[in-house]
Design brief:
Blueprint lengths: L2 H11 L4 E8 L2 E6 L4 H10 L5 E9 L3 E10 L2 E10 L4 E3 L8 H12 L2 E3 L26 E2 L4 E2 L1
Parallel strand pairs: 2-5, 6-7
Antiparallel strand pairs: 1-2, 3-4, 4-5, 8-9
């Protein structure tokens, strides 16, 4: 399946739900959807396009928003789905109903970037140590560590 085939399928299956769709090379694509369309986009990737492998989910602080990047792979093609959320009340829906393997990745994004994953059955910290302060997320741009005082701000 070519990038053009994938683009046609996504456009047909997600009418009005694609914020941006680009492919930077024959084997690399980026799909940006609104957070309310994330589960639908993931379902199309799995059911219509055969993207059965979720490689990982990474989180990012863009300055004004927080976003999660869902990295998928199939037959030499990588496709990254971007979903953004506001900083004031950051949340995204869980995709574990579509990709059960997302459970740990979603917990890590919550720990490191602070995006709440709505509908996730277990949001205990995954990578941060016991006793880590609530509301402190190391991959946010406003995170600071004062080495002299040993204080996380």
């Amino acid at each position: 399946m070519t990038a053009e085939d994938i683009k046609k399928t996504l456009t047909a299956e997600l009418p009005g739900k694609i914020v941006e769709l680009t492919h930077t090379s024959a084997r690399v694509m980026f799909l940006h959807v609104a957070k309310q369309d994330l589960v639908a986009a993931c379902t199309v990737l799995r059911d219509k396009l055969g993207f059965y492998h979720l490689s990982t989910i990474s989180g990012r602080d863009t300055g004004d928003k927080l976003e999660a990047l869902y990295h998928f792979a199939r037959s030499g093609m990588t496709l990254t789905v971007r979903a953004q959320t506001e900083r004031a009340n950051p949340s995204l829906p869980t995709i574990i109903g579509v990709y059960p393997g997302a459970t740990y990745y979603e917990r890590e994004v919550h720990d490191m970037v602070g995006i709440r994953i709505e509908g996730h059955p277990d949001m205990r910290p995954l990578v941060l140590p016991e006793g880590w302060p609530d509301g402190i997320h190391p991959l946010r741009k406003d995170w600071q560590y004062n080495r002299e005082e040993g204080v996380i701000k």
